[in-house]
Write a structure and sequence with these properties.
The complex is a heterodimer of chains A (about 140) and B (about 150). Chain A is mainly beta and about 140 residues long. Helices cover about 15% and strands about 45% of the residues of chain A. An eight-stranded antiparallel barrel of chain A has the order 1-2-3-4-5-6-7-8. In chain B, a hairpin with a 6-residue loop joins strand 8 and strand 9. The chains are: A mainly beta (about 140), B alpha+beta (about 150).
C-alpha cells in the first residue's frame, strides 16, 4: 500500500510544475532588436515569455548553469509561426550589458547564430532597442 | 632543397589540412535511443563556438529538429547538454531536451516543457547510445510510444 502511494507521489512530482522558489521576473530588451523577454527563474529552472511590438513572440524554457565562459541561462525557444528551432544562451546574472547568443536550425543538421547585448528593464513599447527581431538577425 | 620535393611537401600539408577542416565542418554524430520509447535522436556535435544540432527522422516515431548542445554544469543534474526540440507532431509546446553529459548508455535524459513561459514541467528517462543508423530501428521498438507526446 505505502509503496503504491510513494509511486504515485513520485509520478505527481514529475507531472506538476517545478516547485522551486520563483524569483521576481526580470524584463530584458535585446539591444539593436525589438524583442523583449520576461524571465522567471526557480532554482535551476528558467522560463521566459518573449514579446515586443511588431516582433516575434513565444515561450522559452531551460536551465541555469555554468559553462567554461561563465554562468548562463540556456533556453529552448518556440516562436509563434516560425518553423525553425532556436536556443538562447543568456549571460547571468541579468545585468545591463550582459550578452546573449541565439542559435537557429531549420534542418537539425546545421546551426547558425547571432549575438548581442541586452538591457535590463524598460519595455519594447516605450524604449524600443531596434526595429528588427533577433530571429531576422540569424540566418 | 629540390624545388619539386618542396612543392610536393606543401601540397601534402595542404591536403591534410583541407581533409581535417572538411571533417570538422561535417561534425561527428552520436545516435541515441530513448529507453522505453520509440525515439531515436541523431546529435551532430558542435565544436568550439559552433552549436550542435539534433534531428529525429526516419525512425517511424516522430520528426523533430533542434539546436544547442552546449555543455553546462548544474548543481542538481551535473553536466548536461540541452537542445531545443521543435516537432511538427507537437506544435505549440516549447521543449528543451537535456542529456546528461558525456553521452553514454544508461544516462538520464530530461525533457523540460513550458506552455506559458512561466512554469515548467518535465519528464525523464534513460538513454542508450546506438552504433547504427536510425533508419533501421529495432523491430521490438516499433510498438513503443513517443517520448514527445503532444501533451509533453
Amino acid at each position: 500500500m505505502s509503496r503504491t502511494i510513494w509511486a504515485w507521489a513520485a509520478l505527481l512530482a514529475l507531472a506538476i510544475p517545478n516547485c522551486g522558489a520563483s524569483a521576481a521576473p526580470t524584463r530584458i530588451t535585446f539591444d539593436g532588436a525589438c524583442n523583449t523577454a520576461t524571465i522567471t527563474t526557480a532554482g535551476e529552472s528558467v522560463n521566459a515569455v518573449l514579446g515586443g511590438t511588431h516582433c516575434g513572440s513565444g515561450y522559452a524554457t531551460g536551465l541555469n548553469g555554468r559553462t567554461v565562459d561563465g554562468n548562463f541561462s540556456g533556453m529552448a525557444i518556440l516562436f509563434y509561426n516560425d518553423d525553425a528551432s532556436y536556443f538562447l544562451m543568456l549571460s547571468r546574472p541579468y545585468v545591463t550589458g550582459g550578452s546573449w547568443v541565439l542559435y537557429k536550425t531549420t534542418s537539425g543538421l546545421r546551426g547558425t547564430s547571432t549575438h548581442g547585448t541586452y538591457t535590463v528593464g524598460g519595455t519594447a513599447e516605450h524604449h524600443p532597442r531596434g526595429s528588427r527581431s533577433i530571429t531576422s538577425l540569424v540566418h | 632543397m629540390n624545388r619539386s620535393l618542396l612543392t610536393l611537401g606543401i601540397a601534402a600539408v595542404a591536403a591534410v589540412s583541407i581533409a581535417h577542416s572538411a571533417a570538422s565542418a561535417k561534425g561527428a554524430t552520436v545516435t541515441i535511443a530513448i529507453d522505453g520509447h520509440c525515439n531515436v535522436e541523431v546529435i551532430t556535435l558542435g565544436h568550439g563556438k559552433a552549436p550542435g544540432t539534433i534531428r529525429e527522422a526516419g525512425d517511424g516515431c516522430d520528426n523533430s529538429i533542434g539546436v544547442g548542445g552546449f555543455v553546462m554544469g548544474t548543481s542538481i543534474q551535473g553536466k548536461v547538454a540541452g537542445f531545443s526540440l521543435t516537432s511538427a507532431t507537437a506544435p505549440g509546446i516549447t521543449r528543451d531536451l537535456v542529456f546528461a553529459n558525456p553521452y553514454k548508455t544508461g544516462s538520464t535524459i530530461t525533457m523540460y516543457c513550458t506552455f506559458d513561459g512561466k512554469t515548467q514541467v518535465y519528464k525523464q528517462a534513460t538513454y542508450t547510445v546506438l552504433h547504427k543508423a536510425p533508419q533501421s530501428p529495432d523491430a521490438d521498438r516499433s510498438h513503443l510510444s513517443s517520448f514527445v507526446p503532444s501533451t509533453c
